[in-house]
Design a protein that fits this description.
The complex is a heterodimer.
Chain A lengths: L1 H23 L4 E5 L8 E5 L1 H24 L7 H13 L6 H19 L6 H32 L4 H7 L5 H19 L8 H7 L2 H26 L5 H23 L4 H28 L3 H36 L10 H4 L1 H14 L6 H14 L7 H33 L6 H4 L6 H19 L1 H12 L19 E3 L4 E3 L1 H21 L27 H11 L1 H4 L4 E6 L7 E7 L5 H21 L7 H18 L1
Antiparallel strand pairs in A: 1-2, 3-4, 5-6
Helix pairs in contact in A: 1-2, 1-3, 2-3, 2-9, 2-12, 2-18, 3-4, 4-5, 5-7, 5-8, 7-9, 8-9, 8-11, 9-11, 9-12, 10-11, 10-16, 11-12, 11-15, 11-16, 12-14, 12-15, 12-18, 12-19, 14-16, 14-18, 15-16, 15-18
Chain B lengths: L1 H10 L9 H19 L3 E7 L5 H10 L10 E3 L8 E5 L2 E2 H13 L5 E5 H6 L9 E3 L9 E3 L6 H15 L1
Parallel strand pairs in B: 1-2, 1-3, 3-5, 5-7
Antiparallel strand pairs in B: 4-6
Helix pairs in contact in B: 2-6, 3-6
The chains are: A mainly alpha, B alpha/beta.
Chain lengths: 638, 169
C-alpha cells in the first residue's frame, strides 16, 4: 500500500516534469475554479518560470519516490503526508492568485511539518518540528502581510494584475512589499540568519523527504524571491539586488563554515543547502543589480546562473541526501565519527556519494562546476556598472564565492573520506549492507542528472535563457548568443567553456598513462598487500584520522566565528591524583545567531509573556469585571 | 676554571683520522656505475632496525654525513619500504621485531633485495641463542648479502653494498 503511494508520487512527478517542460517551452495554460475558495477562487497558471520550477519539483520527486519505495520498506507512516507534500509543491509555482498560493504554500509547509515529525517518539524530532513550524509560520505571516498589502494597493488578488499595477505604486510601498515578501521567502529558502530550522528539520525527516525539502522545497523560496524581485514588482531600486547579493554571500560563507565543523552527516548536508542557496542568491542578486542598471544581457546571465544552480543543487543535494540516507539506513547512525570503511561494504552508495560530492565541490565535468562558473562570469563583469559601492559589493561576492568553493571541497573531502574510507569505526558500520535496488535506482537517476547537467550546458542554457528572458528587463536579448553545440560562449569573448572538451581531456589524461604503460610492455603482475602501517601488529579504527581532527585547523583559523568552548573533564583515582581514571575533552562551537539573535528575541518574548500574565489570573470574578469594563468602555465610545 | 679553558683551547677538537679519500672515491665510483647499470638511476634503501644496539645505525648515519655523503653515488635512504629497492637490516632479530620485519619485507615492492648488516644481523652475534632473540636476519626473511663487522665501518658498508650489487648482477 505504501509502495503504491510512493509509486503514485513518482507518476505525479513525471506528470509535473512533462507539464513543466511544456511551460518552459512557452505553452500557456490556466485553470480557474472561482467558486472553490473565497477571495478570488482557485486559479492556476503555467508560465515559463513556473514551468521551470514545476519541472524541477517533478524531476526531484521521481528519484526520491523510487528511493522511498525501497527505503520505507512498506511502512505506511508518512505516505499520505508525502503525497500531499509533493502535490502542494507542484501547485506552488502554478498558483496565480494570493489565495491559491497561500493554500498551496501552507499545505506544503504543514505536510513537511508532519514529515519532519516522522519519528515522533524522539524528543529531538519534536523539537525540530516545533522550530520548523515556528519559523515557517513567521515566514508565512510576512508573506501574507506583503501579499495582502499588494492586493489592497493594486486592487487585485491576481498576480497577473500586480505585474501591471505594482510598478506604478509609490517607491516606499514597493519597498515595504518587497521587504515583507523577501523576508518570508528567504525564511523558506534558509537564508542566514533565518536558517536555524534547516539543520534541525532536514536530519529529522526521512532521507527521501530531506532530499525533496533540500532539493526543491527551499528552492520554492528562491522561486518566490525571483517572482517578487523581478516579476510581480517589476524590478526595484539597487538596494533590493544588493541585499540579496549580500545575503547570498553571508549565507554561502557562513553555511559552509558551519558545515565544516558538523559531524552529523545529514546536518552537514543541511548546512550545505544554506551555502548553495547563498550561491543561487548571488546570481539572482547580480541579475537584479544588472537589471536595475539597464544591462539586460548581464541581468539575463545572472538570472540564468541562479536558475542553473537551482537545478544543479536539486540534483546533487538530492543525490547526497539519498546516499546519506542509505548510509543511515544501513548503519543506524548519522555520526560520521562512527562510520568509515563503507566503500567496501556499500560500493554503489559510495560511488553515488562521491559523484554528488564532486558535483557540489564544483569539480568539472560535473554540474556544480558549470553553474558556479556562470555565477563567477556574471559577477566578474560588474565593471560595466559605474558605481564604486556596487562594485565593492560584487567584489565581496566574488571573494565569498571563491572562499565558499574551496571550503566546500575541504568539507566533502572530510565527509566522504571519514564516512567511506579506512576502517569502520563502529560495529554498526562494520556490519553495513548495500542499499536495495529501488534505493540504488533512485540514486542512479540523480547521478545521471548530475552528469547530464554537467556535460550539456550548451543544450540547457538556451532553454534557461528563454525562461529568464522576460524577467531580465529592458535590453535583454530574447535569443542571446550562447556559442555553438560544443562551447558555451558568454558576453561576446568574455568567457567560454566547453564541458565536453574538458571531460574528453580528463578521460584522456586518466587513460593515457595506462595505455602508455601497456604499450611500453609494463608487467601486469600485481601483488595485493594491506596498507603499510609502519609494521604495526594492530591497526584499529582508533588510530584513524577523525572528522574532528580534520576540521580542527579550520576551527582555529576561524575561531572568531566558531567561538569554540573548551571543556576538559579529568577524573582522578580516589587514592592518588597521579592516576587518571577518565579524561573527557569536548570542543564545541557556539552559534553566533543563536546566542546573539534568537536567544535575546526569545528572552524578550518570554519577558513580555510574563508581564501580561497577571491579567490572566484564572479568577471568574476578574473575568466578569473585564466584561463589565469592556461593556462600559464600548457604551461610552459608541 | 682558567686552567680548564686553556686546556680546552690548547687541545682543540679531537677526531678520528679521516679515511683515505682515494679508496672511498674508487669504491664509490664503481658503486655508481653498478647502480646506474642495474637500477637505471639510483638505489633506494630502507633501513630496518630489528633489535640492534644502534652501533650499526651510528655507522650508517655516518654514511649520510658530509664526509662520506653517499647520495652522490646514487644511494638514498627512504622513509618507507614502499619506496625502497633494498632493505638494510641491522640487529639480531628480536622476537618483538620479527613480525614487523616480515611485514616490512612484504610491503617492499618487487624486485627487492635484503642486506643483513653487522655480526648480529649475520647470525645473532653476541646475542645468539638469547631467549629474546630469533637469530640472524635470514631466520625471518631471505637475505641476499651480509656485511659483517661489529659495527662495520662506513667504508666497509660501502664496500659491502658494492659487493652485494655486484653479486646480484
Amino acid at each position: 500500500m505504501a509502495r503504491l503511494g510512493y509509486a503514485l508520487a513518482a507518476v505525479l512527478g513525471l506528470a509535473a516534469v512533462g507539464g513543466g517542460a511544456a511551460g518552459m517551452l512557452g505553452r500557456e495554460w490556466t485553470l480557474a475554479v472561482p467558486w472553490l475558495v473565497p477571495l478570488g477562487g482557485l486559479e492556476l497558471a503555467l508560465d515559463p518560470l513556473g514551468g521551470f520550477f514545476l519541472a524541477l519539483v517533478g524531476a526531484a520527486a521521481v528519484p526520491a519516490s523510487i528511493y522511498a519505495i525501497g527505503a520505507a520498506g512498506g511502512a505506511a507512516r508518512g505516505v499520505g503526508a508525502y503525497l500531499v507534500f509533493v502535490a502542494a509543491m507542484c501547485a506552488v509555482p502554478l498558483a496565480a492568485n494570493v489565495m491559491t498560493f497561500a493554500l498551496a504554500w501552507e499545505l506544503m509547509s504543514l505536510a513537511s511539518y508532519f514529515l519532519v515529525l516522522h519519528e515522533r517518539e524522539r524528543p529531538e524530532s519534536v523539537q525540530a518540528a516545533w522550530a520548523y513550524a515556528v519559523m515557517t509560520h513567521v515566514g508565512l505571516a510576512c508573506l501574507l502581510g506583503g501579499m495582502l498589502l499588494l492586493s489592497a494597493w493594486t486592487g487585485s488578488v491576481r498576480f497577473a494584475d500586480w505585474r501591471a499595477g505594482a510598478p506604478l505604486l509609490a517607491a516606499g510601498a514597493r519597498d515595504l512589499a518587497f521587504a515583507l515578501l523577501a523576508l518570508g521567502f528567504a525564511g523558506k529558502a534558509g537564508v542566514i540568519p533565518l536558517h536555524i530550522w534547516l539543520p534541525l528539520a532536514h536530519p529529522a525527516a526521512p532521507s527521501h523527504v530531506s532530499a525533496l525539502m533540500s532539493g526543491v522545497m527551499i528552492k520554492l523560496g528562491v522561486y518566490g524571491l525571483m517572482r517578487a524581485g523581478v516579476d510581480w514588482l517589476g524590478g526595484g531600486p539597487a538596494w533590493w539586488g544588493t541585499a540579496l547579493l549580500l545575503a547570498g554571500v553571508v549565507s554561502a560563507v557562513v553555511g559552509v563554515l558551519y558545515a565544516l565543523v558538523e559531524h552529523d552527516l545529514k546536518r552537514l548536508l543541511a548546512f550545505h543547502s544554506i551555502e548553495n542557496v547563498g550561491i543561487i542568491l548571488m546570481g539572482l542578486g547580480a541579475g537584479m543589480l544588472y537589471r536595475q542598471a539597464g544591462l539586460g544581457g548581464l541581468a539575463l546571465l545572472g538570472l540564468v546562473a541562479a536558475l542553473y544552480h537551482t537545478a544543479n543543487h536539486a540534483a546533487f543535494k538530492g543525490l547526497l541526501f539519498l546516499a546519506a540516507g542509505a548510509v543511515v539506513h544501513a548503519t543506524g547512525t548519522r555520526d560520521v565519527e562512527r562510520l568509515g570503511g563503507l566503500i567496501k561494504r556499500m560500493p554503489w552508495t559510495a560511488a553515488c556519494f562521491l559523484v554528488g560530492a564532486a558535483a557540489i565541490s564544483a569539480l568539472p565535468p560535473l554540474n556544480g562546476f558549470v553553474s558556479e562558473w556562470l555565477t563567477f562570469v556574471a559577477l566578474l563583469q560588474n565593471t560595466q556598472i559605474a558605481a564604486p559601492p556596487l562594485n565593492l559589493v560584487f567584489a565581496l561576492g566574488i571573494a565569498g564565492l571563491a572562499l565558499t568553493s574551496g571550503l566546500a571541497m575541504a568539507c566533502f573531502v572530510k565527509a566522504f573520506g571519514i564516512t567511506f574510507l579506512a576502517l569502520p569505526r563502529s560495529d554498526a558500520a562494520a556490519g553495513a549492507r548495500e542499499a536495495g535496488p529501488a534505493m540504488r535506482a533512485g540514486m542512479a537517476l540523480l547521478v545521471a542528472a548530475c552528469v547530464a547537467l554537467g556535460l550539456g550546458p550548451t543544450v540547457v542554457l538556451p532553454r534557461l535563457a528563454a525562461v529568464a528572458a522576460p524577467l531580465a528587463g529592458a535590453g535583454a536579448p530574447a535569443r542571446p548568443a550562447l556559442g555553438d553545440w560544443l562551447t558555451v560562449q558568454l558576453s561576446g569573448d568574455f568567457a567560454s567553456l566547453s564541458p565536453l572538451a574538458i571531460a574528453a581531456a580528463l578521460t584522456l589524461g586518466l587513460a593515457a598513462p595506462l595505455v602508455a604503460l601497456r604499450l611500453a610492455g609494463a608487467s601486469r603482475r600485481r601483488r595485493l598487500y594491506e596498507t603499510w602501517g609502519c609494521g604495526r601488529m594492530l591497526q584499529t579504527a582508533r588510530m584513524e584520522y577523525t572528522a574532528t581532527a580534520f576540521a580542527n585547523p579550520f576551527k582555529r583559523v576561524f575561531d572568531f566565528f566558531y567561538r569554540p568552548a573548551k571543556r576538559l573533564d579529568i577524573e582522578f583515582h580516589p587514592e592518588s591524583r597521579l592516576f587518571v581514571e577518565r579524561i573527557e575533552y569536548a570542543n564545541p562551537t557556539r552559534s553566533i545567531f543563536e546566542d546573539w539573535l534568537y536567544r535575546p528575541v526569545l528572552a524578550g518574548l518570554h519577558a513580555a509573556a510574563r508581564s501580561v500574565r497577571p491579567i490572566q489570573s484564572g479568577s471568574a470574578n476578574l473575568y466578569l469585571a473585564y466584561i463589565l469594563v469592556a461593556l462600559i468602555v464600548l457604551l461610552v465610545f459608541a | 676554571m682558567l686552567r680548564q679553558l686553556r686546556l680546552a683551547l690548547q687541545t682543540g677538537i679531537v677526531a678520528e683520522p679521516a679515511p683515505r679519500t682515494s679508496e672511498l672515491e674508487r669504491v664509490g665510483e664503481r658503486l655508481r656505475t653498478d647502480i646506474l647499470r642495474r637500477f637505471g638511476r639510483s638505489l633506494h634503501i630502507r633501513q630496518v632496525d630489528a633489535g640492534s644496539c644502534n652501533g650499526c645505525e651510528l655507522e650508517i648515519t655516518g654514511l649520510t654525513g658530509p664526509h662520506w655523503d653517499l647520495e652522490r653515488f646514487g644511494l638514498h635512504f627512504v622513509a618507507s619500504p614502499r619506496h625502497a629497492d633494498c632493505l638494510l637490516v641491522t640487529g639480531p632479530v628480536t622476537r618483538n621485531m620479527a613480525e614487523a620485519l616480515r611485514r616490512t619485507w612484504d610491503a617492499t615492492p618487487d624486485p627487492k633485495f635484503v642486506i643483513a648488516v653487522g655480526d648480529c644481523g649475520r647470525d645473532g652475534g653476541i646475542f645468539r641463542d638469547a631467549y629474546a632473540v630469533v637469530g640472524g636476519v635470514e631466520r625471518v626473511v631471505p637475505v641476499d648479502a651480509v656485511i659483517p663487522g661489529c659495527p662495520p665501518s662506513p667504508a666497509a658498508l660501502l664496500a659491502g653494498l658494492l659487493d652485494a650489487i655486484g653479486r646480484l648482477g
